[in-house]
Write a structure and sequence with these properties.
242 residues, alpha+beta, Muramoyl-pentapeptide Carboxypeptidase, domain 2, Muramoyl-pentapeptide Carboxypeptidase, domain 1, 8 helices, elongated, disordered C terminus, binds zinc ion
Length: 242
């Protein structure tokens, strides 16, 4: 699971949601900031499975739009981690309060509120939910598991010597096409790295090389050459940057 929902996951992994439902309505920003948090959409999809129709009334808000609609300065709406939603049939206070209590028990819960006794009159019948970002250790473990699956190593989420020795490294500049590239791309993207216009395509092209260079630079490595080394697979230091 990446930090943000991948374009390919809308309508598939999250069958009842479209990215556009979370778009900032201002018309002046890119609509989604850095992306919509996986933890948020995962939680909403579970609710959708349980309760049926769920309508997002506000998803991502750029800081300017958030200010214009009176949102708090550090609102998680500006981080892609919050949504206001309405569920079919949840049209009274006790429904909404029950929903907030249910949300508190969910895995990625950070905060939720709703209009109680008129304290948030402009919320109507909607419920606000914001979620924590995924634990970065989890993201790393997911990456290692995906990698192990791709290279046929024992899948245990730990980049031990078997994984590292089997995980390919590359030394030529472009055209590296290996099944290990995709998990690496998914992982880098989940950490907020820009994969350029090729995106997650399973190929090691120019964009990927630039991305690896950025990664090496961010880690303060002495060699910034865009080459994947075995050490990269075991390097968790990167996670501390996010
Ligand atoms: Zn906007
Ligand atoms: Zn909200």
């Amino acid at each position: 699971m990446g930090k943000y929902v991948l374009d390919s996951e809308w309508g598939t992994k999250y069958p009842n949601f479209k990215k556009a439902e979370f778009k900032c309505p201002c018309g002046k920003c890119n609509g989604y900031g850095n992306g919509i948090a996986t933890t948020l959409v995962e939680t909403l999809q579970k609710l959708r499975n349980k309760y049926g129709k769920l309508q997002i009334t506000s998803g991502y808000r750029c800081p300017a739009h958030n200010k214009a609609v009176g949102g708090s300065t550090n609102s998680k709406h500006t981080k892609g981690q919050a949504a206001d939603f309405y569920l079919d049939g949840f049209n009274n206070q006790s429904n909404r309060v029950n929903m907030v209590n249910e949300l508190k028990k969910t895995k990625y819960y950070n905060y939720s509120y709703t209009n109680v006794n008129g304290n948030h009159p402009n919320m109507g019948n909607v419920v606000h939910l914001d979620t924590k970002l995924e634990d970065t250790d989890d993201a790393y473990k997911t990456f290692v598991r995906n990698l192990q699956e791709a290279i046929g190593a024992n899948v245990d989420g730990i980049a031990g010597s078997e994984t590292v020795s089997r995980a390919p490294t590359r030394s030529t500049s472009t055209g590296w096409n290996h099944k290990a590239v995709r998990p690496l791309q998914v992982y880098l993207k989940s950490l907020g790295y820009d994969l350029g216009k090729c995106g997650v395509d399973g190929k090691f092209g120019k964009d990927m090389k630039a991305c690896i260079k950025k990664y090496q630079k961010d880690q303060g490595l002495s060699i910034v050459d865009g080459v994947v080394t075995a050490k990269m697979y075991t390097c968790k230091k990167l996670l501390k940057l996010y």
